[in-house]
Amino acid sequence: MFKAFSRGTHHRLFLFNFAPQRPSASMSTAAGVKRVGTHNGSFHCDEALGCFIIRLTKKFSDAQILRTRDPQVLETLDAVLDVGGVYDPSTDRYDHHQNGFEEVLGHGFNTKLSSAGLVYKHFGKEIIAKELHVDEDHPDVHLLFLGVYKSFMEAIDAIDNGINQYETDQPPRYVNNTHLSSRVGKLNLDWIDPDQSSENENAAFERAMALAGSEFLDIVRSHVRSWLPGRSIVMECLEARLDVDPSGEIMVLTRSCPISILRSHLKMDTFIFWKLHLFELEEEMKINPPIKYVLYQDDRSKSWRVQAVKIGADRFESRKALPSEWRGLSNDELSSESGIRGCIFVHMSGFIGGNQTYEGALAMAKAALITIGEREPV
């Protein structure tokens, strides 16, 4: 599948060519075909993903991938990722290991970039525009560019640069070896593998590119398909909040969203998508006071839900849980306690409740607003 050219103990050149989604090796070098280099040896998620992403661009769509640390070879290549000690987009050099490197995406993101992040910074909008079938200067392209970075790319950068997810010196309570960077790392040859050849190593790198690349494309396309429409829906509902209640603290989701098809698989409520956008849009739109409750119709039972908004996207505590007197009650008992007809349930933690009608769910939210209650326990 691959051919290795010996260049000393540490400098070996591996050349291969494959389509982004279905790899296949080739040694042919057609006139005008771009060549993209990265290092040989053990690989990480960032260069595997970076090589995949750069081949999605018009400039490097037919590029061959060369794996080597030979500086003389690297100098001859059209682009170099994760090796060479140079970051210079004008010459398509995208390394991040050199002293003094502090490049970040910007736009509020401060995580130091890996080689994948560097490629995404300079080519991400082109790829997203292609998926949207619009020009790069379309406003939706910038929204998705930032959204994909936040939900996917930033973690790749942080992990490769050894940046902890939480600002603490405490050891983690459990080991997580299921994230993409870990799964890509596991594709490296095991020390007990009987075939330690360079051909086998490069076959593993191909698999790493395919794995990282497929997840990248899944994220981009899910953002195009559901994230962007969901954001528009949440924005419309936020703008209409004062029509629901003068307090401005109750939002009603009146439109469905394609992400509801995930419900049966993820066991989440139909309108889970609103959580992806509410906190950002509240800040962007300067919503004050913040939303306390979100109402939406259950797509199966057609009854209505009233859900307390969390204090943060990655927190479990609610801004204002439903009244403690209601928690754990259901049906007639709950209706009697609350004085509201049609009640179905309130969760033991107070983060969600249900009513047979929209009017009943709205009455529950309004009543909950005026109660003096503690936040939902963490």
TrEMBL record:
Stored Pfam families:
MYG1_exonuc
The protein's superkingdom reads: Eukaryota
Protein name in the entry: Metal-dependent protein hydrolase
Q: Record's PANTHER family? A: METAL DEPENDENT HYDROLASE - RELATED, MYG1 EXONUCLEASE
The family database entries (InterPro entries) matched by this protein are listed as:
MYG1_exonuclease (IPR003226)
Kindly list the organism's lineage.
Answer: Eukaryota, Viridiplantae, Streptophyta, Embryophyta, Tracheophyta
Q: Which family does it belong to?
A: Belongs to the MYG1 family.
